[in-house]
């Protein structure tokens, strides 16, 4: 009998030690389409577009999951998983992402998957952790919607590089302003019939005059950076090559902004056409860039990593590798992954009311 009593006491003691306790183990799961959840997701999207130094802006497509943890000494930590889609706006384009067109499936769409953790204090979100990757849609899926649409080509393909350089030469020859240098090849497609190369690339202004520049090596980039975005098609013909190119040069942003009347801060890209005929895009190629937008501050990564040589797009994972850290209001560093390893979701789920399931709605299309 004494042994039985002792056994029951030990069992109760073990249960007390093993049972979770404390407010730090309870989280809530709001609806993925709640306004607060979407606000957190849009802050994450802004963070991506402000810190991605190459390629194109991304937009929110779907919120997959969200958990909200109480954060000591105050505030809340939002753990959120989102799907993004690449837009047709380059990251240097000042057009707000809300006004950018999503790249369609027939254009060989690119999808991003991201895990974010955002600290909310006094109604404001700050990014504490970001990990993303992105990839183009499969060739099979593109063929389902458009059998003859070209796929993404490696950006270092000799035909792609040649097309970009030839297009820039044509643009500079017909440009009355600054001489421009090739900044980045952003996207390319090879069309078999008729043989042609479609390429999108960015350019940067120099202190040389376009029609007077003879040696590009003698030209220096402008102190106030001036960027442009170009689309070009190089058609291969029996008698040689034919290049059609259009470029949009973005206005430079003043180093020290001065107070302006309402609406005066809008920076409108200046269209500059480098050929009489507009660039003829292949089947499935995107249309022209939107024009007119507020000033957009572009943030470059401090030390960009070495990118894969034969890439066909700029992968988000090369910048958002899960190494972002943010100091808490108390001065202590946040460790989001450490929080996740301690919590027990079943406790929080049982304590709160039943909420609508995630994932949330698809805003554009699934890739």
TrEMBL record:
A single GO molecular function term of this UniProt record: cysteine-type endopeptidase inhibitor activity
Source organism (scientific name): Pygathrix cinerea
User: Which Gene Ontology terms of cellular component type are present?
Assistant: blood microparticle; extracellular matrix
What residue spans carry the Low complexity bias annotation? 274-284
Task: Tell me the Gene3D superfamilies matching this sequence.
Answer: 3.10.450.10
Region entry Disordered: which residue ranges?
A: 254-285
Domain Cystatin fetuin-A-type: from-to ranges: 27-133, 144-255
Q: Which UniProt keywords apply?
A: Disulfide bond, Glycoprotein, Mineral balance, Phosphoprotein, Repeat, Secreted, Signal
Where's it found, cell-wise?
Secreted
One of the GO BP terms on file: regulation of bone mineralization
Q: Does the keyword Metal-binding apply?
A: no
Which protein are we looking at?
A: Alpha-2-HS-glycoprotein
Q: What does this protein do?
A: Promotes endocytosis, possesses opsonic properties and influences the mineral phase of bone. Shows affinity for calcium and barium ions.
Signal sequence, start to end? 1-18
**Quaternary state and partners of this protein?**
Alpha-2-HS glycoprotein derives from this precursor, when the connecting peptide is cleaved off. The two chains A and B are held together by a single disulfide bond.
InterPro entries noted in UniProt: Cystatin_dom, Cystatin_Fetuin_A, Cystatin_sf, Kininogen_Fetuin_HRG, Prot_inh_fetuin_CS
């Amino acid at each position: 009998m004494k042994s039985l009593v002792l056994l029951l006491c030990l069992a109760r003691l073990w249960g007390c030690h093993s049972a979770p306790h404390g407010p730090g183990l309870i989280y809530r799961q709001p609806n993925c389409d709640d306004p607060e959840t979407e606000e957190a997701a849009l802050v994450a999207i802004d963070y991506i577009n402000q810190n991605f130094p190459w390629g194109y802006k991304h937009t929110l497509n779907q919120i997959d999951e969200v958990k909200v943890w109480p954060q000591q000494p105050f505030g809340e930590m939002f753990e959120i998983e989102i799907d993004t889609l690449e837009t047709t706006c380059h990251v240097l384009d000042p057009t707000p992402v809300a006004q950018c067109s999503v790249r369609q499936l027939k254009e060989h769409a690119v999808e991003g998957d991201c895990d974010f953790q955002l600290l909310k204090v006094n109604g404001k979100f700050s990014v504490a952790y970001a990990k993303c990757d992105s990839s183009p849609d499969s060739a099979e899926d593109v063929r389902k919607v458009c059998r003859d649409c070209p796929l993404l080509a490696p950006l270092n393909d000799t035909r792609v590089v040649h097309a970009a350089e030839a297009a820039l030469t044509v643009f500079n020859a017909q440009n009355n302003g600054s001489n421009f240098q090739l900044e980045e090849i952003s996207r390319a497609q090879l069309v078999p019939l008729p043989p042609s190369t479609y390429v999108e690339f960015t350019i940067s202004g120099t202190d040389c005059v376009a029609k007077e520049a003879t040696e590009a090596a003698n030209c220096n980039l402008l102190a106030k950076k001036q960027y442009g975005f170009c689309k070009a098609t190089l058609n291969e013909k029996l008698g040689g090559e034919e290049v059609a190119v259009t470029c949009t040069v973005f206005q430079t942003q003043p180093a020290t902004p001065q107070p302006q009347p309402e609406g005066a801060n809008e920076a409108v890209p200046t269209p500059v056409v480098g050929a009489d005929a507009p660039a003829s895009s292949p089947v499935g190629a995107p249309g022209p860039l939107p024009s007119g937008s507020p000033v957009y501050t572009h943030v470059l990564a401090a030390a960009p990593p070495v990118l894969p040589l034969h890439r066909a797009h700029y992968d988000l994972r090369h910048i958002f590798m899960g190494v972002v850290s943010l100091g808490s209001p108390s001065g202590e560093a946040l460790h989001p992954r450490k929080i996740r390893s301690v919590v027990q979701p079943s406790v929080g789920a049982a304590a709160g009311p039943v909420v609508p399931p995630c994932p949330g709605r698809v805003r554009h299309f699934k890739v």
